[in-house]
Amino acid sequence: MHGSYRRQLTHTFIEHWLSLQPYAKVRNRDIGQQPPAHVNHRWSETALGPEPDSDWASNALTQSDEPIDELLWAEFLVLGVPMYSFGIPSSLKAWIDQTVRLGGLPPDGNPVSLQRPTGSADAATSGRPRPCSTHRG
User: Fold this and answer.
1) Residue 26 lies in a domain
2) In the chain, how many domains are there?
3) How far is CA 98 from CA 1, 37, 91, in A?
4) Dist CA 56 CA 39 (whole Å)
5) Fewer Cβ neighbours under 10 Å: the N or C end of the chain?
6) Is residue 19 part of a domain?
7) What are phi and psi of 130, to 5 degrees?
8) How far is CA 8 from CA 21, 88, 131, in A?
9) How far is the C-alpha of 48 from the C-alpha of 51, rounded, in Å?
10) What are the pLDDT digits (tens) for 54-111?
């Protein structure tokens, strides 16, 4: 756990969640230890263009497919994120950038929103990812 307060808090939250939901499945992705590639001009042209036209382009989108598949698999997201100068780390920004592209989220073309609409919390989040946020500092 590397002694980080954020990592300890995230680990405690997941352990508590699993104690309440013993059949829940958890996937961990530590983007601080294994950051995704940052998007660049070539990636943008590939992701926003009509079709990949090279091995590089195909590989770039394949790397992007993995976090997209994880998001579609997830019912909940638990993000333990440090803040640097009141902003998110560049590795989290890269992860977000990798998942927002044509043909990415979601495959049926319906938008997925992590913002809770007005109305009943149960009705608003039924079948959708549910936001949970904590911060310190």
Assistant:
1) yes
2) 1
3) 26, 8, 10
4) 13
5) C
6) yes
7) -115, 125
8) 20, 19, 19
9) 9
10) 677 777 777 888 888 888 888 888 888 888 888 899 999 999 888 877 666 655 555 5
Structure tokens at 125: 């989040």
Q: Flag whether 20 is in a domain.
A: yes
Say which CATH number the domain at 25 has: 3.40.50.360
How does 114-125 read in b/e, with b if 16+ C-beta sit within 10 Å? eeeeeeeeeeee
Dihedral sign (CA 121, 127, 129, 134):
positive
Helices within the chain (DSSP H only):
5-20, 41-48, 55-73, 90-99, 121-125
Range of the domain at 50: 5-104
pTM of the predicted model as reported, rounded to 2 decimal places: 0.66
Please check whether residue 94 lies inside any domain of the structure.
yes
Cα angle 47-52-54, degrees, rounded to a multiple of 5: 130
